[in-house]
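Repro:
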Amino acid sequence: MDLRESYSRDIRIFDKFYKWGWLALLIAWLLIYSQAGGNYAAYILNLIFINTIIAVGLNILTGYTGLISLGHAAFMAIGAYTSAILTVKLSVPFWLALPISGAMAGFIGFVVGLPSLRLTGIYLALATMAFGFIVDEIIIQWHSVTGGAEGLSALPPTICGFTFDSYPKYFFITFFSLALVLLSAKNLLRGTFGRALTAIRDSETAAETMGVNLGWYKALAFTLSAVYTGLAGSLYAHLILFISVDNFTLLHSISFIVMIVVGGLGSITGSVMGAVFITMLPEIIAFSKDYLPAAIRNTAGLQAAVYGIILMLFVILQPSGFYGLWVKIRNWWRMFPL
C-alpha cells in the first residue's frame, strides 16, 4: 500500500499527479455533455453542482466538526431570497448579489451558531430544526418583501452584458462556483483549520487540552457552512427562476443530511458522490414508478420513505458511505493478491 510519508505530501490537493489528468478529462466531458446533451441534461448537472455546494458546506459542519444541523434548508432559503430580492427589487447585478447572499446566510449562521454552541447531538439538531421553522414563518408573514406563500420570481443572471437564460448557459456559472467552493474548502480543510475541526469532532476535551478554542472554531464552522449553503441558495433561485417556501422544507434539510451520510462524512469527495446520488434519486424513483405496484406508486411520501430506507441501510451496512467503500476497493486492489 502506498503510504504518505511526509506532511507536504499529506496536504496535497491530490496525492497522485495522474489524478490531475483524470480531473481534466472529467471537466472536458462535463463541458461537452452540458452543451450537447440538451436542456434536461444541463438542468440535472446544474442541480448536481448546487447540491454539491450544499453538501460540502454541511459536511464541514457535520462531517468534520461533528455538529448536526437540520436547518440548512433555511440557510439555503436566506441565500435564495436575498439574491432574488436584490436583483429583482433593488436592481443589484447578479455578480454582486451572489456573494452578498452567501455573506447574509453566513451572518445569520454565526448568530444562530453562537447560542447553539452549548448544545450537542439531538438538542442541536432540534434547535436548528426550530430555526428552519422560524425562517419559513418569516418568509410567509413578510409578504411585502418575500411574496409570502405566493412565492417570488427571480431573473436570469446577466454578467458583462451576457444573459444566462438557458440551462446550458447557466452551467458555466454553477460550474465555476462549484470549482471555487471545492478549491477553497479543500485548502481550508487540509490545513490548521481542518485539523482543528477534526480534533473537535473526535474529542472536545482533547482538542481543548491542545489549545483549540472550541467556541471560535465551532462558530467558524457554522458560519462557513452557512456561507456555502447561502451561495447555493442564490444559484438555485436563478436556476429555477421562482422560489417559494415549499422549496426549503424540513425534507430538504433531511435530504442534505442523507447526501453526506451516503457520500461519506468528513470527505469532500464523499460530498460530491452523495450529491450526485441524491440528486439523481428522484429521477430514478420517477422512472421506477411505472414498475411498482399501484399501492406503492401512489403513496404520497414515497420519496421520504426511500430517503429513510437508504439512510438506514448506509448507517447499518456502510457507515463510511460511498467514499469509504471506494477506499476499501482501492486498497484491496493495491494489496491484491496479498
